[in-house]
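Late entry, written up from scratch paper. The run itself happened at the end of the previous shift, but nothing got recorded in the book at the time, so transcribing now.
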Amino acid sequence: MEEAVAAQTGFSGQPAGYARLRRLVHERTGLDLEAYKERFIERRVAIRVRATRHEKLGDYLRYLSRERGEMERLVRCLTIHVSAFFRNPSTFEAIGREVLPALFAAGASRHPRIWSVGCSRGEEPYSLAILAHEHLGNQRGAWDVQIHATDVDDRVLEEAKAGEFGWSQVADLDPARRERYFARAGRWCIAPEIRRMVRFHRRDILMDPPGGEYDFIICRNLLIYFDRPGQEAVFERLARCLRPAGFLVLGRTEVFVGPGRSAFDVVDARERIYRRHPVAVAAPEGGA
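Output as recorded:
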């Protein structure tokens, strides 16, 4: 259905309209669509064209220009938020097995920094915080774990900061974890000691400068929306943001492309876990 509506709007045949839409979104929200795949943009815009009962892209763009509420709805449609606690459990099992022992090894920094890219409503960074809390056990007081969680959508970041979830979001959690790390107060509220480990910020990975170096970066199911140059730019940025011997986790359907790949060794091919070379290798110039 989305493909049919996209064809009706004539979106792909109107580069001027596409350029205007990108310009409007960037001017109003700061979201840069340059690196997004055109077919992805077409499909998502088609949803809003249909929802607002327009037939032509030009008509929709005029509507978008004057209706502020529609711009917010369009951006939410473009920045898909699909997440869950411990989504893809085997990935988190591999993180617990391959990443955390190295991150919290004797002699490691007592202030490990983790970056959750495209964090949506917070399920992923909170899951990492729970995993780290469990791993450290009675040693957790000796560590200052900092998880930076970023997204381009201000509204979902506010929801993430609140740390409150509906039953559908926690129903699949292990009952023992749900009992230990959530309190029922109308909604399910994340435990204070987990919330304190996570800091939420708005950041566009292609536009905003990195916030220092990290020991572990998780960037799942975001790159599939970017074109090849955009993906390569993201990989180069991630390579520059990781400390030597730092870990990177991608989505299970994502493939590491571009020159930034040479800075990493494969830890777990199935779960897309990579580790930066222990001796830092300068990333190529260019990119984000």
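Confidence is low (pLDDT under 50) at residues 1-10, 281-288.
(Scratch paper discarded after transcription.)
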